[in-house]
Amino acid sequence: MRKKIIWTCFALYMALALSCKDPTGYEPDDPYVPTPDPPTIVYPVADTSFNATIGVPIMVLFDWTAVSGAEAYEIQHDTALTFPTDTSDVVQAAPAYLAFYRYTYITTSYYRIRALSASWEEGHTEWSETRRFYIKPES
Questions:
Q1: How is residue 60 annotated by DSSP?
Q2: pLDDT exceeding 70 applies to what percent of the chain?
């Protein structure tokens, strides 16, 4: 009887030992999901013009397609196409209003949008296409 118990315990031990994976080869599941495509800008339409007085802010409406799983969106904007000042605003969802100023006779503003999420591999999508709008003197 004692021999049978020992052999049973040994067989059980071997079955468990052989069914276990190599502990040094353990890799946890990847908690991140693939990063989706960037949002598509809906508004302002490319080359839209807004009227404003110098130094007086105007509120510009931004709208884009929602990205599944996005936690927020970053709208980057600048008066230069290369975005040298890296000015951006983070908003929770579309649509969003941002204040802009006219600095000269006509001020050109460039903008692009990307979605943000901590659960994506990259943490953010690529930027949307870059568009521009103009702020002109009031008529």
A1: E
A2: 78
Question: Does residue 25 form part of some domain?
Answer: no
Cα 23 from chain centroid (whole Å): 36
Neighbours of 38 (CB within 10 A): 20
C-alpha dihedral over 126, 128, 130, 133, to 10 degrees?
Answer: -140
28-42 pLDDT, tens digit per residue, is 566 778 999 999 999
Task: Return the closest-CA partner of residue 127 out of 63, 68, 41, 46.
Answer: 41
- Check which CATH number belongs to the domain holding 79 and give it: 2.60.40.10
Q: Which runs of consecutive H residues, i.e. helices, occur in 1-139?
A: 2-19
Query: Which has the closest alpha carbon to 74: 59, 96, 49, 57?
Result: 96
The answer to whether residues 65 and 40 touch, using CB atoms and an 8 Å cutoff, is yes
What pTM was computed for the model? 0.76
Query: What's the rounded Cα separation, in Å, for the pair 85 and 69?
Result: 29
